[in-house]
Amino acid sequence: MIVGVDEAGRGALAGPVVAAAVWLPPDMDDQCFKDSKVLSPARREFLFQLLVESDARIGVGVLSHRYIDQVNILQATMEAMRRSVFAIGEIPSKVLIDGNRSPDLGGILCEAIVDGDATVTCISAASIVAKVTRDRIMCALHSKFPEYGFAIHKGYGTCAHFQAIFDHGQTSVHRMTFNVSRQLELIEEKLRCLV
Q1: How many other C-beta atoms lie within 10 A of the C-beta of residue 176?
Q2: Could you read off the pLDDT of 43-78 as tens digits, one per residue?
Q3: Which of 7, 44, 65, 128 has the fewest C-beta atoms lying within 10 Å of its C-beta?
Q4: Pairing mode, if any, of strands 94-98 and 109-113?
Q5: CATH code, domain carrying 74
Q6: CA-CA distances (angstroms) from residue 35 to 6, 7, 44, 97?
Q7: DSSP SS3 for 58
Q8: Which H/E stretch holds residue 5?
């Protein structure tokens, strides 16, 4: 039982980090799964539903902005990945992780694969589950904080998001340990280059 793991939200300014672990059944057509970043939102939703309705095994780990502020984003990401693997309900024989680090899974064999979401099908499937799950959370937060545009940028550091922070300050779902002042300086530099 080989399981793929990926995360979404690691580089965001607001909201949780979400990790997903996916085992694909042998009879599933795996040619349709790609890195979630290269798929349209509609295609991601379609493939997410396909996975949920199939015999695939799926585990999800969600860690809040508060947890991220307590331990840092790297540790929160590793913990979300660990939780997603154990949420499957069965101990895998091997776990393939997107990136260059693996969480501590006790005695479970792990392999970190850089760009695994683009090259390993079960990691691609996990990237879709993580992305769709997190996007849905951010869309729900949009209804609470509509002036920030979370449904559009999903909490990432876009110009519109930084402008909302300039105009309204940070919300209760922003990550307070993220160096927003440095990010604002970088945005200002980018804006100067565009003028």
Answers
A1: 11
A2: 999 999 999 999 999 999 999 999 999 999 999 999
A3: 44
A4: parallel
A5: 3.30.420.10
A6: 10, 11, 10, 13
A7: strand
A8: strand 2-8
